[in-house]
Design goal:
single chain; 33 helices; 595 residues; mainly alpha
Length: 595
């Protein structure tokens, strides 16, 4: 991340303190069962019955039987109401248990936890748990007092980090600075601690000491120019723009290709609306072969997003992106940025297509880009190009099931059924627990469709069953399976059930309605078949894709005695029928006025 993103980074610093040392649910600080057992056994003076009850409660806790643990602790505390270990465990249940943690229980748990700490003040686990609980309840002053006691005994970074966070939440900036310096004495100076001090001094309106903190960091690490750039960023963000500019230029004089300084200076020029300086530096950064890839992408990203938001001319942006893409060893992120830019600017599809091709050339194993190109080639009916994309994709990612599916579907469309079956069978072998179940289902369903077209019904039905097992809501599979069963006049109840599921899901889908009507027709339920074929035609246009729907309508109407209407439907089907064999059948029906 580059230094111009400092506001986010400074927020992250605060988040890190919370992440590393933030208040946690009290149960997370609980001593282990072994420690609780040890503590109990050391108290020789306790009645034997108390020890038995407490030890059993610990065992039940390990088994996550909270109700049993609660009852055992309750009985133990009746014997020894001042036993800190039992008070502590009962407090955890009352403060964190979903069943027991109502308002009254939380109040009791609070009192029990406080009492456990008073009875055993040397137990740091008890104190940490109480301190964390108090912080969660925003009782920061009490939590601070406890963590100061803890840090006096155990001045680990975690405890001091927690203290810094608590002081910060309580608005005690002096306490924050004091604790940071204490941590620096123990751990040494660091970027994170220096930034935290800087932010704290800024909150205290002590700008002099704030910048002194970062300057000291620069002095301590003079060879790490990141800190100098960071200092420049801080100058810029707090209104000291000339100091910021001098700092960036000083860094670049020392190291001309310093990516951090380049990005910060670009942002400086942009904010100052120094357009010519900005564009000149942008081109130098982008076209310099020594520029780090991340810096180049960051510079281009800022430039393209600004152009999108301002509605600027696309040509100079595309030209710079293309120049960057053409550079040796260029990262694919630049081409991907061009893809994004083309989409956001709604540029003609050829620009988008070119960007995708550039991306794939730079990173040929990047499946999302290959899939986007594949979809575009298919939508343009460029089947051979789409086929090659699938085959190349499998060379890079042989376990990507979707490529088998598309390769086979293209081969099927090209009439190469046997080859399509072989591809699908190879794809089936690649399906495992990590495969997307919907894609895997589609693969089996397509295999079944092709096997049916080859009249290999037994193998096809097995493939359909597997497809539905993988995705019970695969509507196209359910429809095709049901239709093929009706064509074979077999398992009609099963076919009807599957088909009904499709029209319930999509009640206006003419294809699904036609299948349901046809299964009813084959089942000799002619009146019901008429009802559904009428619904089918309400949602179907008369075109070459739907000629079979009108053919079916004619057959159904013939069997309910409406022969004139049946012939009219057959004539409509013939008028759009693209298949020579089916056209001859329709002419025969029309001529003899019967199926």
């Amino acid at each position: 991340m580059f230094s111009r993103l400092l506001p986010f980074f400074l927020c992250l610093v605060a988040a890190l303190w919370v992440g590393c040392s933030s208040p946690r649910p009290a149960v997370s600080s609980a001593p282990s069962a072994e420690k609780s057992l040890s503590a109990s056994m050391e108290k020789k003076e306790r009645p034997r019955r108390f020890n038995e009850l407490f030890l059993e409660s610990v065992r039940q806790k390990e088994l996550e039987r909270i109700d049993a643990q609660f009852e055992l602790l309750e009985a133990a505390l009746k014997i020894c109401p001042d036993a800190p270990e039992a008070l502590y465990e009962m407090a955890l249940i009352k403060l964190t248990g979903t069943v027991y943690s109502d308002t009254l229980s939380r109040t009791e748990g609070d009192s029990m936890l406080q009492l456990a700490v008073r009875l055993e003040p040397e137990n740091l686990s008890y104190k940490k748990t109480l301190g964390t609980y108090l912080a969660n309840m925003t009782r920061f002053r009490e939590a601070i007092a406890l963590y100061e006691e803890i840090a006096d005994v155990e001045d680990e970074a975690e405890n001091l980090g927690m203290l810094i966070w608590l002081y910060k939440q309580n608005g005690d900036y002096t306490g924050v600075i004091r604790t940071i310096e204490r941590l620096e004495q123990k751990e040494g100076k660091s970027e994170m601690l220096s930034l935290e001090k800087f932010q704290t001094y800024i909150a205290m309106n002590d700008n002099s000491r704030a910048f002194q903190t970062i300057e000291e960091l620069c002095a301590e690490y003079p060879l790490d120019l990141r800190y100098r750039v960071l200092l420049g960023d801080l100058y810029d963000q707090h209104g000291f723009h000339e100091r910021a500019l001098d700092t960036y230029l000083d860094v670049l004089a020392t190291e001309p290709d310093n990516s951090y300084a380049q990005i910060s200076l670009l942002a400086y020029y942009k904010a100052a609306q120094a357009d010519s300086l900005y564009l000149n530096l942008l081109k130098r950064v982008v076209l310099n072969p020594r520029t780090e890839s991340d810096a180049r992408v960051e510079a281009l990203r800022t430039y393209t997003i600004d152009n999108i938001q301002s509605g600027g001319d696309s040509e100079p942006v595309l030209a710079l992106l293309d120049s960057a893409i053409a550079m040796p060893r260029q990262a694919a992120e630049v081409a991907r940025l061009k893809v994004y830019y083309c989409m956001q600017k709604a540029l003609p599809v050829e620009y988008f297509f070119e960007a995708l091709q550039q991306d794939l050339e730079l990173e040929p194993d990047y499946t999302p880009t290959r899939m986007s190109l594949l979809q575009m080639q298919l939508s343009n009916e460029n089947l051979q190009e789409a086929l090659q994309l699938c085959r190349d994709g499998l060379l890079y990612e042989p376990s990507e099931v979707v490529f088998y599916y598309y390769e086979a579907s293209i081969l099927y469309r090209l009439g190469e059924d046997d080859e399509a079956i072989k591809v699908l069978q190879r794809g089936v072998l690649r399906i495992d627990d990590t495969a997307d179940p919907e894609t895997a289902s589609d693969l089996h369903a397509l295999l079944a469709d092709i096997l049916c077209s080859k009249k290999l019904y037994e193998e096809a039905y097995a493939a359909y069953d597997r497809a539905i097992e993988l995705n019970p809501n695969n509507l196209l599979c359910l429809n095709n399976y049901a239709y093929f069963l009706s064509q074979q006049n077999t398992q009609l109840e099963k076919a009807l059930k599957m088909s009904k599921k499709t029209i319930e899901a999509e009640p206006e889908n003419a294809t699904y309605l036609d299948t349901y009507a046809w299964i009813l027709f084959v089942s000799k339920k002619y009146d019901e078949a008429k009802t559904f074929i009428d619904r089918t035609l309400q949602h179907a246009e008369l075109n070459s894709e739907n000629y079979t729907l009108f053919d079916h309508a004619g057959d159904i109407y013939f069997h309910i005695g409406e022969r004139t209407q049946a012939v009219d439907f057959w004539k409509k089907a013939l008028s759009v029928c693209p298949d020579a064999v089916d056209a001859r059948k329709l002419r025969r029906k029309i001529r003899y006025r019967r199926p």
